[in-house]
Amino acid sequence: MSEGFGGGPEAGEAVAEVRADVVAVPRPSYLAWTFWVAISIGASAAAVGAYYITLTTTIAHEKLGPFLGVLAGCVLVSIGVMYSVHRRLTQPVLDWLRRPSDDVPSEAWIRSLNYSLLMAASVGLAAFGVTAGAALFGMWQSGLRFALQVLIGGLLAALLDATFAYLYMDYAMRRVSRAMSSRQPLLPVRGEGIVALGLGGQMGLVIVNASVVGAVVSGTLAHRGATLMLQEGGDLGWLAIRIVLVTLVGLGVTLGGCLLVARHATGPISDMAELLKTLDPETYHRRYPVAGTNEVARLGVTVNEMLAGLEERELIKDAFGRYLARQVSDIILQGRLELGGELLTVTILMSDIRGFTPLSESLPPQEVVRLLNRYFTSMVEVIMENGGVVDKFIGDAIMVIFGAPVKRTPEESAMRAVRSAIGMRERLRELNESFEAEGLPAIRVGIGVHTGEAIVGNVGSSQRMDYTCIGDSVNTTARIESACKTVGADVLVSGVVRTLLGNRIEVGPSSRVHLKGKSEPMDVFPVEAVLDDSGLITTASARSRSD
Q: Which of 236, 239, 301, 386 could hold 416 in an S-S bridge, CB 3.0 to 4.6 Å?
């Protein structure tokens, strides 16, 4: 079996699980059914050629039997030749239908696209071959004039035969192509080995062929009728009716063929529009099953490429979100990676585990990592719920920014930070209950919150950057967090935060502490409760003793 275009299990391997978004695979017998229906449609087109011959010539009764016998033999031979071509064209497709896989062999895909056009050409050539054989026999039997009329009638039949066969097979094979492309959406519709026919070519095939046949038959009918009237007299009204009927049938065939081609274009476009209309990050995995080689099929491939790009971008965002805040990953994906930053008023939260060194010495390293991961997971969930950006993990410490890169007022960023601190404290209580049930030591933390100016942006080099904030306010926050141990509280806020939030938070008595590196002492406040929009949210006492 031919090498596939890539992706999926080995070619020929049965699909173990059918996804909800894939098109059902037709039975292998569907290809044979398509062939015989196309032959039947072609046989109906041959009636036009026969009608033309009856208009232009007559054949003696004793010669009719041998002529029809030769014609039938030529038809049978041509059907055998076309079936052989059909089998050769569809063998790779048939192999895939018998054992469908997500890795579509390139040869099977190309044959499914080329089948209708190549078979239509084969049908037309076969019809011409039948006509040529019948014309040669007719010339030997009844003369050159009879042979020419047979040849012209056969050519008309061949044109309609090829046109009708193409329209039907193009429609039928779409089911096969859609089944393949729904499993491997980025299969090409243009390229080496693919015989492409655009919408203009499809319309031209229908219009030209049907118009030529209709014009020849109508002209011949008018000429014959006029000749008979001059020679023998006749009913001019009946002749006019026959010409009008032939013209109307020709127009009907042309219009029907054009409408069918148009339906092949408008239907997929409508389906793609519905797909795009309901598009959101949850549905980026969906793909449009492509069929055919015209401009609409190329549009379908482009839509699938766009969806694949969006899905990949979303996966990258999700992956980045495990290392960076979503807001920061958005900046990276938007290409805003210039070194530098801007001076902003932000609120910074820092938390640290108390007594981590003795805790880590009492547990195996793997257990310490597992405990830390569970702790960080719980804390980060609370932080992200309140719109915080985790700047970094420093050992067992967490540094969080509120108010950048999504800019917020100092009051809002301070409130979000305090809510995060209270939420982290409550979540830690639940986590410690789980640790206690598992025989693990409880974790105690200190959390400091401060609002102030800082430079926020990309810091580092062009090879490696870090989105962070730098400034005295960062150092102050770290010192406030360290003061939790001195004051005996697990959540402390600075006087700036206390002033910004006013009576929206409940705090305990202030403590005046000397922060390391600061010449002047600072007032800090333990937070006991925070006032939310729905009312007062009370929390456990903020004054839990730390070591």
A: 386
